[in-house]
Amino acid sequence: MDAINEKDLDEVIAKTFNELRTAVDTHSEKSIQMYSQALRALVELREQVTRGQPGAD
After folding, report:
1. 0.85 exceeded by the pTM?
2. Which of 15, 17, 22, 49 has CA 20 to 30 A from 6's CA?
3. How large is the C-alpha radius of gyration of the chain?
4. How far, in Å, CA of 28 to CA of 55, rounded?
5. CB pairs under 8 A, 24+ apart, for 13-19?
6. 3-state DSSP call for residue 13?
7. Do the beta carbons of residue 20 and residue 32 sit within 8 Å?
8. How far apart are CA 11 and CA 18, in angstroms?
C-alpha cells in the first residue's frame, strides 16, 4: 500500500472544511452532518499520518 501524501490530505481537509462552511451558510442539515463526519475522519487520519512520521513524538 502506498503512503498517504500529506499535502494531498491537507488539500482534501481544506476542501471538506469549505464544503462544511457552505452547508452551514445554506442551513443544509444533512450536508452539515455529512461534511462534519467526513472532516472528523480526515483530521483523525491526518493525526495518524503525523504520528507515523519520524520525529513526531
Report:
1. no
2. 22
3. 13
4. 41
5. 13/39, 13/42, 13/43, 13/46, 16/42
6. helix
7. yes
8. 11
Question: pLDDT by residue (tens digit) across 4-36?
Answer: 899 999 999 999 999 999 999 999 999 999 999
> What are 43's three cell numbers?
483530521
The whole-angstrom separation of Cα 42 and Cα 14 is 10
Q: How far apart are CA 39 and CA 41, in angstroms?
A: 5
Separation CA 50–CA 31 (nearest Å): 28
C-alpha cell at 50: 503525523
Amino acid identity for residue 4 in this structure: I
Alpha-carbon span 14 to 17, nearest angstrom = 5
